[in-house]
């Protein structure tokens, strides 16, 4: 009879580990789903920083909204699917499955200085520096 609680505990541990990021069943360690936007950003050259601070870079079809698919194709590899979806869910404040420029600008990972340099479109970036 003592074996049943042990089996339940093991199953619960496996389920919790398998859904560590809340998005996929392939994450067996919480660190797999971690991302550090500032560390990623800091490692980029100046040209890349400007690119990543322009929402239009991620809005691949220019409809004013970015999806997980848009981010997946815009970011350099490798980015784990879990980290990508976790990042997206934190930026997508409305929960509608799309990130707008306003949500992009309000993302928590931007520093105060970076926030002043964010632009929605490439045209806006050219006009206002």
Describe the structure.
By secondary structure, the protein is mainly α. About 55% of the residues lie in helices and about 0% in strands. It is built from nine helices and no strands. The chain is globular and about 35 Å long.
Write the topology of this structure.
Elements: H1 3-18, H2 37-42, H3 46-52, H4 55-58, H5 68-74, H6 81-91, H7 101-105, H8 112-117, H9 122-128
**Taking Cα atoms only, what radius of gyration do you get, to the nearest Å?**
18 Å
Biggest β-sheet strands, sense, barrel: none
Instruction: Please state roughly what percent of the residues sit in beta strands, choosing from under 5%, 5-15%, 15-25%, 25-35%, 35-45% or over 45%.
Output: under 5%
The average pLDDT score comes to 74
Put the structure in a nutshell.
Helices cover 53% and strands 0% of the residues. With 129 residues, it is mostly helical. It starts with a helix and ends with a helix.
List keywords for this structure.
129 residues, mainly alpha, 53% helix, globular
């Amino acid at each position: 009879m003592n074996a049943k609680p042990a089996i339940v505990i093991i199953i619960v541990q496996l389920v919790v580990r398998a859904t560590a990021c809340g998005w996929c069943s392939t994450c067996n360690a919480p660190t797999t789903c971690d991302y550090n936007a500032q560390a990623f950003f800091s490692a980029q050259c100046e040209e890349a920083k400007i690119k990543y601070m322009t929402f239009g870079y991620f809005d691949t079809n220019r409809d004013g909204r970015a999806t997980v698919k848009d981010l997946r194709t815009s970011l350099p590899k490798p980015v784990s699917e879990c980290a990508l979806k976790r990042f997206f869910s934190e930026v997508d404040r409305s929960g509608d499955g799309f990130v707008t420029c306003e949500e992009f600008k309000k993302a928590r990972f931007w520093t105060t200085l970076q926030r002043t340099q964010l632009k929605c479109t490439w045209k806006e970036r050219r006009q206002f520096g």
